[in-house]
Amino acid sequence: MRNSMAGGPGHSVEAHVTKARSHTIGDLLRRTALRYPDKTALVAGDFRETYAQLNATVNATAHALSDRGVVKGDRIALLSHNCREFVVVYLALAKLGAILVPVNFMLTAEEIAFILDHCEVSGLVTEDALAPIAERALTVAGRGVALAGLISSGAAEQGAAERGTAGRWEDVTSWLAHADTSEPDVAIGDDDPVRLMYTSGTESRPKGVVLTSRSLIAQYVSCIIEGELSPDDIDIQALPFYHCAQLDGCLTPAIYLGATSVILPSADPAAILAAVERERATRLFCPPTVWIGLLRCPTFESHDLSSLRKGIYGAAPMPVEVLREIRQRLPELRLWNLYGQTEMAPVATVLPPDLQEAKAGSAGRPVLNVETMVVDDDDMPVPAGTVGEIVHRSPHAMLGYYKDPEKTAEAFRNGWFHSGDLGVFDADGYLTVVDRKKDMIKTGGENVASREVEEAIYGHPAVAEVAVFGIAHPYWIEAVTAVVVARPGAAIAPEEIIDYARGCLASYKTPKYVVVTDQLPKSPSGKILKRELRTIHAHLAGAVVP
Fold this sequence. Notes:
Layout: H1 13-20, H2 25-35, E1 40-44, E2 47-50, H3 51-67, E3 75-79, H4 84-96, E4 99-102, H5 109-118, E5 123-127, H6 131-141, E6 147-151, H7 156-163, E7 170-171, H8 173-176, E8 193-199, E9 207-212, H9 213-226, E10 234-237, H10 244-257, E11 260-263, H11 269-279, E12 283-285, H12 288-296, E13 310-314, H13 320-329, E14 334-340, E15 347-351, E16 365-366, E17 371-375, E18 388-393, E19 400-401, H14 405-411, E20 417-425, E21 431-436, E22 440-443, E23 446-449, H15 450-458, E24 463-473, E25 477-486, H16 494-502, E26 513-517, H17 530-536
Parallel strand pairs: 1-11, 3-4, 3-5, 5-6, 6-7, 10-11, 10-12, 12-13, 13-14, 25-26
Antiparallel strand pairs: 1-2, 8-9, 9-19, 14-15, 15-16, 17-18, 18-20, 20-21, 22-23, 24-25
């Protein structure tokens, strides 16, 4: 009797089973396009694209990339503000099994060069406005790339000619117009790497977080269930796609469901408010700093925002006063607080709308696919009311840190992912994040490693000691602050340190405040007491204008 499960010529049964069971990032768009072919997928300015059209464009781009030598496992960096082309290239790479490396466009050329070198990129796609910094980064990294794509704003050819780099960069528009729109046939496993996200975390050098389709799709399911996402949502996509919060907490779940995404190049409050009214948007994610910016925007009252029903925030707790103001000025809006980190793809816990004020400041409870504990230094669970390290078990969790088995082993010791954050559960099982175990600062929704800033400031010849930490801030939520001790006989002005730091760090990492002092408070063992410094200098943010 003929085996009905036998493979075809050149293909094993296992290969056919794997293909039939495939559920990867590259599969999501195709399936949505089959369900909702005529539904609007993307809105970018005056441009609109249905799911059927988007899927065809992504397939065409995937074939163009394949023609240019891109294969499964290649690392392709993407340096761009939010735009339609970012989405298309991202999804095309996913269909090929290539690994997307989103790069923070606020980084310096030197910081970008480290990422390009560390992950050994074989391709780089950048928007034309960022091409000069991309060129500089490649030079510093000492790397050539086989693929160099330019997202054009219309002046790309002239800009490339002026830089003398027209030969290196190829206009991405030509990729989108490739004649072949058939589905790429690439075998991709659920736990094959599809994303490499670099995060400063708590170290002086960024770590590469390896994410797989299994990690990401499990997280999308959690977001969809806990955040009450719907195919009927019209979602404003304004925060940067290089950050997992927007890319994986909002954009890709929307594509998975078949919701409509309105892409904005930046989180400009006036532009967000206008887009909500124009597109009748129902959902918006912003960190607290941007929600504050929306409330303070002069055009807030002039816009019809009645369509907005779901508001998401994260990266930091929302001040209670701001929660109350949002409730007063947007009474139909329901808010969710999402807590997590890149290594969790990124969501781990959620505080739902009905508990925003009753549990103000809380990160909520673990989402559907996450198990969370608070443990002591021996990884033993601690009782409610006791501070310890937050740890998780979940398919959300990363595969590991790229090329860093020691840090991977440390993060996953005893079968739990260790977040590095300190937290406490209350008697009802709601988690509050109370500190960063290794002094990570979250400012304006971005992570800043205090050690990285300290090392930069230590490069100043007059600096003897420096401690960097975050203080509460009415706009940034946390402001990067440095306390500096000068070398004997040297004199330093705070402005001098800020200018120096600005020359070697991204702007959001540059201290907002610098204090020059005679000595730093230390424990008997010589450890700098940053908690004491936070208390002493908490007043600095009192008179700041954002």
